[in-house]
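TA notes, week 10

Several of you asked for a full example with nothing omitted. So below is the full record: structure tokens for the whole chain, then the designed sequence directly under it. When grading your own attempts, check the secondary structure regions first.
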């Protein structure tokens, strides 16, 4: 049913299962290769070789996955998944014998991690396609958090293949995440910068940026916030699903502090709200540019003489960073920010030690 062969110093098994030829790199030991072949033959006989009866080509399943993503995920998420899959397919060019989804192994995923760690990448994590494109802004190897996201994307894709009966097991199941110790420090505004930024903000935009700084809302969450989502009685903002929009990581509640409570009440009064389903901020259906908040933020930053402030997301980082520096624990930050994984929240961990030490030093037991 099969045989072993040697290429260089490595032994491979070559086996045909249900009319399909499968070749797999196994070991440098001939004896172990012989045992691996016997094991593969037994699995094939028991129909436990790792692929379902309606196995599917990798290319065809990727098409189905992308169609599923376009229907079930936000456009930005679908774009990110497409970029990950494009990276994975570039990697698979070196493995022309892999055709079916069942031929993706845990070992192959581990080799993909090595590939991404060793390839030249752009600032956004995408691979450099041509050596002539290597510049001072490119770097050798994708960052750990980028690779972890890519593995999570592949895990999502293969889990769907299992749900649909195309695969028996997920090849990413036992793949460990990389330790994230190479992330760029997050950019956040100091208290002084916050004050200068808000002082320079036009009155009609003030409630928007003040809310972002005091809640850590994502830009899309703020744009889709309706008055019905603001509970003044309980002093909570509820991020929840809408018929035409879904939050990135599920629903959550964010407390409203005193200052924000006053700003929102004034805004509601000035807006003369008649329908609780009206949007709290006139951004989503304003007919203006999708990048309105970013463009205005850049103008305000320039006016306030604040450097390196070009992203609305920086205000979200500001919210989390100042909470950490005030001694708030990371699991609480995770819940407030709506992070699905504590590792995402860990980017703020470096801000905690000195401030926690300072807090403990205030203890006195005379």
């Amino acid at each position: 049913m099969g045989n072993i062969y040697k290429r260089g110093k490595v032994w491979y098994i070559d086996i045909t299962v249900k009319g399909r030829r499968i070749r797999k790199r196994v070991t440098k030991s001939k004896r172990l290769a012989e045992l691996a072949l016997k094991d593969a033959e037994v699995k094939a006989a028991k129909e436990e070789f790792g692929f379902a009866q309606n196995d599917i080509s990798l290319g065809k399943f990727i098409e189905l996955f992308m169609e599923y993503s376009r229907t079930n995920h936000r456009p930005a998420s679908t774009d990110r998944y497409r970029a990950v899959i494009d990276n994975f397919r570039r990697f698979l060019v070196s493995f022309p014998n892999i055709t079916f989804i069942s031929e993706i192994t845990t070992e192959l995923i581990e080799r993909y991690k090595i590939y991404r760690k060793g390839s030249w990448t752009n600032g956004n994590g995408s691979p450099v396609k041509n050596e002539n494109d290597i510049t001072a802004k490119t770097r050798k190897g994708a960052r750990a958090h980028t690779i972890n996201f890519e593995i999570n994307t592949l895990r999502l894709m293969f889990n769907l293949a299992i749900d649909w009966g195309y695969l028996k097991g997920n090849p990413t199941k036992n793949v460990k995440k990389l330790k994230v110790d190479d992330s760029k420090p997050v950019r956040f505004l100091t208290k002084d910068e916050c004050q200068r930024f808000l002082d320079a903000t036009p009155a009609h935009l003030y409630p928007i940026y003040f809310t972002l700084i005091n809640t850590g809302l994502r830009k899309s969450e703020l744009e889709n916030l309706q008055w019905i989502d603001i509970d003044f009685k309980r002093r909570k903002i509820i991020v929840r699903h809408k018929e035409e929009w879904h939050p990135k990581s599920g629903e959550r509640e964010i407390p409203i502090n005193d200052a924000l409570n006053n700003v929102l009440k004034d805004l509601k009064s000035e807006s003369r709200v008649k329908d609780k389903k009206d949007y709290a901020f006139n951004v989503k259906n304003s007919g203006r540019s999708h990048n309105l908040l970013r463009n205005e933020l850049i103008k305000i930053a320039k006016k306030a003489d604040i450097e390196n402030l070009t992203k609305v997301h920086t205000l979200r980082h500001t919210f989390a960073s100042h909470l950490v520096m005030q001694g708030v624990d990371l699991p609480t930050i995770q819940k407030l920010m709506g992070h699905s994984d504590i590792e995402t929240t860990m980017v703020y961990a470096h801000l905690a030690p000195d401030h926690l030490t300072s807090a403990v030093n205030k203890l006195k037991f005379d």
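The beta strands are 2-7, 10-17, 20-27, 120-121, 139-140, 230-231, 236-239, 252-255. Use that as a sanity check on your answer.
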